[in-house]
Amino acid sequence: MLEKLFIANYFNYKSFIYENSLALGLSPNDSLILIYLLEEYQKGNKKIDVSKIEEKFLLHKKDINNSLSNLLENAFYNVVLVDKDGVLEEQITISPFFKKIEDYLNDNNKEDTNKKIFTLIERKSKKLLTANDYDNINNLIVVDNYNYDDFNNTINYLEKAKLDVTVRNIMKYIEKKTTISKAEETEKNIVSELLNIFIMQNEQK
């Protein structure tokens, strides 16, 4: 998706790289050269010319090669062999860069969701979570794949049942509550499908 936006010139990759360079593990030189590679790629130039980079940024050839190696090793670009009129030549592909960015954004989204779950539990239980509580909740998220809605529904169930909102009770009831919710959702879908079939049959008469 991001690669398509980049090709259509709708992705401001320069700002993104500058703002997230530290989080992405990019040195200043790495950032400059990565942006240069992306600029050239947008122009249709998929070959690396170290002398042009040296001339543009007034960097030593050794520093440029170090940055190119770092970017390659950390999957910001890749080198492929392309057949040009029977001659193989090296070109770069920037698809790994967009895969890395999408993974980075997804990880941040997951982290934000986890924070929302922890905040919800602390707010509803009216107490700060202990290290053990964090581990137990994290296991429910990572191992058992429960999401924010699952936790929210379980807490609502506890409140309606006038049970204490504790990590222990959440762990005790979350499987039961989500199983019931999924069964109810399945039942609703079946009823909806049957209703649609009934309506279609009547319309055909």
Please provide the count of β strands: 2
Mean of the pLDDT scores? 84
Count of DSSP H/I helices: 9
User: Which range best describes the helical content: under 10%, 10-25%, 25-40%, 40-55%, 55-70% or over 70%?
Assistant: over 70%
Strand order in space, largest sheet:
1-2
Structural class: mainly alpha
* Quaternary structure annotation: single chain
Radius of gyration: 26 Å
Shape: elongated
What is the beta-strand fraction? Answer: 5-15%
Taking the sheet with the most strands, its summary is: 2 strands, antiparallel
Q: Termini separation (Å)?
A: 46 Å
From N to C, what is the helix and strand string? HHHHHEEHHHH
Low-confidence blocks of residues = 180-188
What count of domains describes the coordinates?
Answer: 2
Which features does this protein show?
205 residues, mainly alpha, two-stranded antiparallel sheet
Describe the structure.
It is a single chain. By secondary structure, this protein is mainly alpha-helical. The protein folds into two domains: 2-93, Winged helix-like DNA-binding domain superfamily/Winged helix DNA-binding domain (Arc Repressor Mutant, subunit A, Orthogonal Bundle); 107-204. The protein has nine helices and two strands; from the N terminus they run αααααββαααα. It has helices spanning 2-7, 13-24, 28-42, 50-57, 61-73, 95-125, 131-142, 148-160, 167-204; strands at 78-84, 87-93. It has a two-stranded antiparallel ribbon with strand order 1-2. Strand 1 and strand 2 (87-93) form a beta hairpin. Mean pLDDT is 84; it is low at 180-188.
